[in-house]
Amino acid sequence: MAKQENSNITLSCSDCGQEHCGRRNSFYPEFCLTTHLSQEEIDEVWALYNEPENKKMSVISAQIESDFYCRYTRVEEIVVFCHRMGYKKIGIATCGGLLYEARIFAQILRKNDLEPYGVVCKVGSFDKVDVGVPAEDAVRTGPVMCNPIMQAKILNRAETDLNVVLGLCVGHDTMFYKYAEAPCTTLITKDRALCHNPAAAIYQTQGYFRKLLERPVEDPRMQEEG
Ligand code: SF4
After folding, report:
1. What's the whole-number average pLDDT of the chain?
2. Are 118 and 92 in contact (CB under 8 A)?
3. How far is the CA of 188 from the centre of ligand 1 (A)?
4. Distance between CA atoms of residues 28 and 19, nearest Å
5. How far apart (Å, rounded) are the C-alpha atoms in residues 159 and 225?
6. Do the beta carbons of residue 172 and residue 94 sit within 8 Å?
7. In the β-sheet with 162-166, what is the strand arrangement from edge to edge?
8. What is the pLDDT of residues 121-163, one digit of tens each?
């Protein structure tokens, strides 16, 4: 790993201005991850791509990108992906706050001869305090905890072919991905402040969200504990 001069910062692809790996029209920077791959890593990854499911998914993903570039919405691309992969039973891991969206998405799936199976985040109606959330932190958003492990287990039991995440919270989505056995994709990424369009914060760093580049994100709880 290359370090920036006089700094402990480790440079990686997110610091690269060339993207020679994708464009092949300039040069690889000194810290380039492509030029620092070992033959063992390359062989290991090729072996994985040569597994039938991965090979099929790689070809179909590339073809969907090519066939519908800038024309199909993500909803439409998910439907096409399901058909081309041969997926039939589609798990929907939804936030309770997006049940309307989940219902519409399920209708769209049915319209396309797919079988939606939705599980809401509050399934099981577990109490937040029982998992260790302090009672005072369960006042604003209610006593029932989001239950992504149960969502994953129910979709595992239902033997879904693909799971689609609809607006699970940060961290809850992490646990869902951790325990889901079927392949997963995301339709909606929750961002309560930006109508589920988290990229807007990035695009507005020269404008309304300039503060994100000017200072660290404040977390009063960490400051209290620190
Ligand atoms: S692999 Fe190399 S060329 Fe590609 S983005 Fe990363 S650092 Fe840049």
Report:
1. 96
2. yes
3. 28
4. 8
5. 43
6. no
7. 115-120, 89-94, 162-166, 184-188
8. 999 999 999 999 999 999 999 999 999 999 999 999 999 999 9
Residue 24 has pLDDT above 60, yes or no: yes
Q: Model confidence over 148-203: pLDDT tens digits?
A: 999 999 999 999 999 999 999 999 999 999 999 999 999 999 999 999 999 999 99
Cα radius of gyration rounded to whole Å, the chain: 21
How wide is the angle at C-alpha 70 spanned by C-alphas 65 and 73, nearest 5°? 85
pLDDT digits (tens, 9 = 90+) for 95-113: 999 999 999 999 999 999 9
Crossing angle (nearest 10°) for helices 74-85 and 99-111: 50
For the question of whether the overall pTM of this predicted structure is more than 0.85, the answer is yes
34 lines ligand 1 (CB under 6 A): yes
User: Is ligand 1 within 6 A of the CB of residue 20?
Assistant: yes
88 is written with which tokens? 């039939």
Per this entry, what is the length of the chain?
226
The pLDDT of residue 6 is above 60 = no
- Check: CB of residue 167 under 8 Å from CB of residue 105: no
Reported as a pLDDT band with limits 50, 70 and 90, residue 225 is confident
H helix intervals, 50-198:
52-67, 74-85, 99-111, 128-131, 148-157, 172-179
Closest CA to 114 of 85, 79, 81, 84: 79
Residue 33 Cβ contacting ligand 1 at under 6 Å: yes
- Any atom of ligand 1 within 6 Å of the Cβ of 26: no
